[in-house]
Amino acid sequence: MKKLFTVLLLLVVGCSVAGKDVSAFEGHISAVKTGGLEVECSTVVNQNDPSPSSEEGWACLVLVPHDTPVQNTEGESIPMDEFREQARNEEMLYIRVTLEESTNINKDPESRKLTAKKITLLE
Question: Would the pTM of this model clear 0.85, i.e. be above it?
Fold first, then answer.
């Protein structure tokens, strides 16, 4: 009985400490890469960290397939080439990235390699 209680306690504590999966996040584009974007994602990384560091910035590498829909806040479509050009020319363009699948984004570099399902230009 004691062993069962210990196992259940470990499960409950482990689940409550585990990070939360994210299906979308907002951030500024810090760089345009071949096939993707580097997007500032410190807010979501720090949300999933039990001891967040407010001083360190975190970037996510967001892979953007050419057929990824891009739109503005009114829902109007923006051609991918036009969006990429705007991202190159404007500093700190603010976007919302909807991910292909929900994931736990944290300090681990592998968790910050993501694929966009949709991009919304917020600024």
Answer: no
